[in-house]
Write a structure and sequence with these properties.
The protein is globular and about 85 Å long. Helix content is 29%, strand content 27%. The protein contains 14 helices and 23 strands. The strands form seven sheets. It has a seven-stranded mixed sheet with strand order 3-9-10-16-13-12-11. A five-stranded mixed sheet has the order 20-19-21-22-23, with helices on both faces. By secondary structure, it is of the alpha+beta class. Helix 2 packs across helix 10. Strand 4 and strand 5 form a beta hairpin. It binds glycyl-adenosine-5'-phosphate.
Length: 462
């Protein structure tokens, strides 16, 4: 069973060094979070797993790392300046500010309405102001003079950095259609009604890929384009299931209704997860047609086209975009891994059952006690494995408590060193260690000489 309430995860994240509320010593800073020593490892591992599947294991996708702050006209061409807005309303009584669409979707509980059917404040039932459109992009200033010419935006997505580099990648990498460009990076959105921990934050990381293909022969009925869209939906769904180990019963694909589609998209499907509060988006897979390349071509005066050797024509490719949230996926990975179950003694234990590939710490080297006689061999084992896998060394407190601590941070394997390993009373040790499995709690003895080979088998993809 995954965690059924968010508070449990929020508290574990802070207690065990995954995620801290930002700037707590200054009283906190709403909807921003700092990733602690284990959070940063977990985030890196999820990002690496995505990069492995999307770039390294494919010969039709390459990577990119475009500048965060770029020409402001990029955001004019993309439509973000004109249309990347949320409808905001204020309560005339308690003065709280809300996103009207979120109230109407029932995100704050049953929708309250007055006699005329107008939506009321979810907090105190007060009357709401008329909605105002609020642009979600953060503005910043380049240089020392604050005027319009020096204004720039923090990126609200990674996609546009990919589009404006389309020609650079085609020319430098001699790419033929179809091919993709992938990028993982931080994005910023001035979200007004955020909340739900790291589900919706001001600053978050995305993992996006733009897959460029030939325009369909029949633009009105683009069957092959929609089949490609469907293939990417299937591929992304199975990544969550097979690579991250998310239970299929808590994943679904939801196609957007026409009126729901983003300003750029001809068709979009979301991969959704069943959060403790209901279904929520993990990733959007959008069929963006040729909108972005055409828009940047028009805005810049520099057409972004591809030369089709067969027809000898310059064409504008169409695009499929799988756009995932890294930090949101991290929240799901935590929720999904959380388990409470009996330990060896029948007492309740908390375990994060991460797949080994994403677990922040892969191994813990635990001498049975602080006894000096155990330390040299334990340090030898530690020195052997730590260049290969993220490993903790811990000799304080009872072995049972140390197992519990490693269970709670999701370490797949503990390596225990005891007196049988080092010898006792003049008898030589067997130079073997005990491997304790996090999930089954079973223990096996392994000679030091075959330790690395055994661990390689038991930590696939690490
Ligand atoms: N380029 C397309 C794009 O950005 P999106 O659906 O707005 O599409 C993609 O964002 C993913 O980014 C979402 O599915 C979600 O996982 C993540 N995301 C978006 N806004 C977020 C926020 N404020 N906080 C955390 N994650 C966010």
């Amino acid at each position: 069973m995954p965690a059924t309430d968010l508070e449990t995860i929020v508290s574990l994240c802070k207690r065990r060094g995954f995620i801290f509320p930002a700037a707590e010593i200054y009283g906190g800073f709403a909807n921003t979070y700092d990733y602690g020593p284990l959070g940063v490892e977990l985030k890196r591992n999820i990002r690496d797993a995505w990069w492995q599947a999307m770039v390294r294991e494919r010969d039709d996708v390459v990577g990119l790392d475009a500048a965060l702050i770029t020409h402001p006209r990029v955001w004019v061409a993309s439509g973000h300046v004109a249309t990347f807005n949320d409808p905001l309303v204020d309560c005339k009584k308690c003065h709280l500010r809300w996103r009207l669409d979120h109230i109407e979707e029932g995100q704050y509980g049953p929708v309250k309405r007055d006699a005329a059917g107008n939506v009321l404040c979810p907090n105190d039932g007060g009357e709401l102001t008329e909605p105002r459109q609020f642009n979600l992009m953060f503005k910043t200033q380049i240089g020392t003079v604050a005027d319009d010419a020096s204004m720039a935006y923090l990126p609200p997505e990674t996609a546009q950095g990919i589009f404006i580099n389309f020609e650079n990648v085609v020319n430098s990498m001699r790419r033929k259609l179809p091919f993709g460009i992938a990028q993982t990076r931080v994005s910023f959105r001035n979200e007004i009604t955020p909340g739900k921990f790291i589900f919706r934050t001001l600053e978050f990381e995305q993992m996006e890929m733009e897959y460029f293909c030939f325009p369909p022969k029949d633009r009105e009925n683009p069957a092959e384009y929609l089949a490609l869209h469907k293939a990417w939906i299937d591929a992304r769904l199975s990544w969550y299931r097979d690579t991250l180990g998310i239970d299929a019963s808590r994943l679904r694909v939801r196609y957007h209704e026409k009126e729901e589609l983003s300003h750029y998209s001809a068709a979009t499907a979301d991969v959704e997860y069943l959060f403790p509060w209901g279904w929520g988006e993990l990733e959007g897979i959008a069929a963006r047609t040729d909108l972005d390349l055409t828009a940047h071509g028009n805005e810049s005066g520099h057409p972004l086209t591809y030369f089709d050797e067969e027809t000898k024509e310059h064409i504008v490719p169409w695009v499929i975009e799988p756009a995932a949230g890294l930090t949101r996926t991290l929240a799901v990975t935590m929720l999904e891994a959380y388990t409470e179950e009996p330990d060896e003694k029948g007492e309740n234990r908390v375990v994060l059952k991460f797949r080994p590939n994403v677990a922040p710490v892969k191994l813990a080297v635990l001498p049975l006690s602080k006894n000096e006689a155990l330390r040299p061999f334990a340090r030898k084992v530690f020195d052997l494995v730590r260049p290969l896998w993220m490993t903790q060394y811990d000799e304080t407190q009872s072995i049972g408590r140390r197992y519990r601590r490693q269970d709670e941070i999701g370490t797949p394997i503990c390596i225990t060193i005891d007196f049988q390993s080092v010898g006792e009373g003049g008898q030589p040790g067997d130079e073997a260690v005990t491997l304790r499995d996090r999930d089954t709690q079973s223990q096996v003895r392994v000679p030091l000489s075959s330790l690395v080979a055994t661990l390689r088998e038991r930590l696939p993809g690490c």
